[in-house]
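Consider the tokenized backbone below.
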């Protein structure tokens, strides 16, 4: 079993983007269910494109993470700064 440590708000929020892109479903679940990270937060997109974790999961073609994020309320119609939706 993996052990995750709590971190700063900025670190934890940014982490969900990287975990989504890599397809790390266990980490994404931990961040959402334990750390309380919003699945629709775009404020800490590491590339400042106003993308959500769902955008990043879609880029990585990570079906399990995509399904999980949507089941947790991720909005598949959220537009980034270029007007692109995640799906």
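A designed sequence for it:
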């Amino acid at each position: 079993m993996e052990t995750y440590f709590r971190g700063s708000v900025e670190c934890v929020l940014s982490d969900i983007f990287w975990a989504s892109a890599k397809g790390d479903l266990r980490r994404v679940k931990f961040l959402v269910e334990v750390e309380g990270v919003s699945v629709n937060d775009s404020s800490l997109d590491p590339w400042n494109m106003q993308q959500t974790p769902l955008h990043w999961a879609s880029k990585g073609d990570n079906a399990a993470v995509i399904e999980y994020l949507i089941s947790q309320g991720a909005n598949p119609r959220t537009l980034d700064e270029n007007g692109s939706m995640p799906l």
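The mean pLDDT is 88.
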